[in-house]
Specification:
By secondary structure, the chain is α+β, with helices and mostly antiparallel strands. Helix content is 51%, strand content 14%. Strand 4 and strand 5 form a beta hairpin.
């Protein structure tokens, strides 16, 4: 009888161990992924796919609406009427320029990239800016403009008095200053980089070619590492300058500032 009790106890222990193993396996299968697993999946998020078809349609639409606005501006008889056309042109640019930029998302970056359409090769940061400006309808020298320092790129469109330059400013303080500026489409120049800042009711978006992912990206303020790491920062607002908008409406050239 003692041997029977010993065998029974061993059997119960064995069954208990199998039960615990089975329960552990079930928990591992059903349990939620760990933080490390989640972060790993986030890092594997696929890049957006460039959209050249929408891009081509947008370019045509911008040209069509610009021509109509230019006709209205020429026919305007009062300053109030001209002011209304400028306001409409500003709204058009602030709506369509970010849409053009986002058609490039996922396009690979390269220091020597010169792609002219989304997904049509690699593109450097300067070429991204000059190509967007050209395809929005600004009469620019795309290649020459792309090869300039960021401040010269901005000065091609705006007078020096319209530029805001900061150096050695804490990132959070700098972004606070930018958020307090007027809504609009900005070009931002950094130590060795250039891109666009889209400032509207949704907040700030940094759209540029480069960054950690080495492609065209649309980054929130929290993810704008290139701005954070730069000592030098210069911005100019394209859509709050009436003279710039008039030149764009009348299709006047923007010679590259050297």
């Amino acid at each position: 009888m003692p041997n029977a009790h010993i065998h029974m106890r061993s059997l119960l222990i064995t069954l208990g161990l199998f039960t615990l193993l089975a329960l552990s396996a079930t928990w591992l299968i059903k349990s939620p992924p760990s933080i490390l697993q989640i972060k790993s999946k986030e890092n594997q998020t696929p890049a957006p796919i460039p959209d050249p078809e929408t891009y081509a349609v947008l370019i045509e639409d911008i040209q069509l609406h610009r021509n109509k606005l230019a006709q209205e501006y020429r026919k305007a008889e009062t300053e109030a009427q001209r002011r209304q056309v400028i306001t409409s042109a500003k709204a058009l640019l602030e709506l369509t320029m970010p849409a053009l930029m986002r058609c490039w998302l996922g396009t690979p970056w390269d220091f020597n990239g010169i792609a002219s359409v989304p997904g049509g090769g690699k593109i450097a940061c300067g070429y991204f800016v000059s190509t967007i400006m050209q395809d929005t309808g600004f009469d620019v020298q795309r290649i020459r403009l792309a090869q300039q320092p960021s401040q010269n790129i901005i000065l091609t469109f705006l007078p020096r008095k319209s530029l805001h330059i900061k150096t050695a400013t804490k990132f959070t303080d700098y972004m606070h200053l930018v958020r307090n500026k007027a809504h609009g489409i900005y070009i931002i120049g950094l130590d060795k980089h250039v891109g666009f800042l889209v400032h509207n009711s949704d907040g700030l978006k940094f759209i540029h070619s480069g960054g950690v992912h080495k492609r065209v990206v649309d980054e929130s303020q929290q993810n704008a590492r290139a701005i954070e790491k730069s000592n030098y920062r210069v911005i100019g607002c394209l859509t709050n300058d009436d003279e710039l908008i008039k030149k764009w409406l009348m299709n006047k050239p923007f010679p590259t500032h050297l």
